[in-house]
Amino acid sequence: MRWSLRSMVDKMGLDLSLRTAMSGLRTVQKGLDTVSSNIANADTPGYTRKVLTQSTVVMNGKGLGVQTGNIEREVDTALQRETLTQESRVANLKVLDQYLGQVEMLHGDPEQETSLGNVVNQMRDGFAKLMDSPSSVPLQNQVISLADNLARTLNRLADGINSIRTNVQGEIEGSINDINTQFQTIADLNRMISTSTAQGKTEPDLEDKRDEAVRLVAEQIDINVMKRSDGSIAILDHYGQPLLEDTYKPLSIATTVISPQVAYPGGIPPIRLGDPASGLDVTGMMRGGRLGGLLDLRDQSLPRYQAQLDEFSQTLSETFSTAGLTLFTDINGAVPPDAPATASIGYANQMQVSQTVRDDPRLLRDGDDGISAGAADSTLLRSIVDGVLGSQQTFQTGGLGPNSNVTSSLPARTDFASFATELVSYQVNQRANATAQLESATSLRDQLKTKLSDQSGVNLDTEVSLLIQLQRSYSSSAQVVSTNRQMFNDLISIVR
User: Fold this and answer.
1) Rounded to two decimals, what is the model's pTM?
2) Does 448 map to a domain?
3) Which neighbouring-strand residues pair with 295?
4) In a domain, 398, yes or no
5) What is the pLDDT of residues 174-197, one digit of tens each?
6) 149 plus 11 within the same structural domain
7) How confident is the model over 256-281, as a mean pLDDT?
């Protein structure tokens, strides 16, 4: 009986064997491409390990080889989300540590003679010496010099705080620009990924790029990421307000000049979503991350430091004036009242020794009225040394700042030197606390990143081992193809 070539091929299973071997070759080739890509991008920021999905092809109960599917990412989304949250916290604490460090440098070493508390004590010592020789012109001039040194110290600190606040505002504007850049990137990638999803394809490399853009946004603000069925993602703020959905709406903020008298809300314009003039005010929703830290500095910490300086300056000036000597005034020669508290905003920036006292140093002895019981009278000076500078005073601790919403966190009743020392210590300790928290948060962030890298990143040893396996599989499948080809040629010879 003569057999046809086809019947002989079918009988021997050569066709099935060849199909199986060829599918193996195709699968191995795609696997090699995937592994090669993993190895090449092992050090690429944001790259995640890719795996090739596979399934067995069965027809009529017979295996026909392997069918390749999409390339997928190995990502632990829960761990990824936790890492993003910690990235945001680290960025937040880092910017706080940075600018509170500048405040600390502004004050210098609390033990130095130039520290605010020591400058107050130096002025008190000067008044004490003058009390023993109230008519001494050199001692009178020395007291004026010491008072001027105190006023200039307060000016320097207050101006420094405002300068830092101005720099913070500039960084806020820069942060908003950075967020907008990443929002645009995410929106563009969303469109490409959703188009591929509709076609039944995956875009793992594009998803990696999008995740990296999301990470950069998370460094700026706390966010929540919501993945949608079409493969795209939505970005929500800390409170669940959508910032990026189907369409991209930029954040915006108008430029402004920072001064002690302006704050948000009020003199400082809001951050808006969408239209710069009428878009939703999302300033209060920008929490966490670098931008959240900058807003806390601009609207909370730095206004509090300014308010503490203003309260000290106003109370000192008013106490002197009440005692009978208007030693300190603003640039107009007036002492701001203690109520409302807003009346003294920015006073520390302009406080100066009264020009009247500069022109007539004898007023240090004789008081505002210029009347003395005698050349050696020390009544006013004693009341200044013991009553003004040597006793406890009452300080406002609430209702401070441009919006009357700032609390001072300093003692409500103490003497001026102690208040000054507490003021410096409080502001310096704020940086110390931020530094300690930053170290702890950074350590946790690094642990999470390592864990995420172990789970989602590329391990070169693993990839090389897999590469060797795939090469062996390729050789085996190639050998099957070669054997099938030889057998097929032999069959042709038999048929002929």
Assistant:
1) 0.85
2) no
3) none
4) yes
5) 999 999 999 999 999 999 999 998
6) no
7) 93
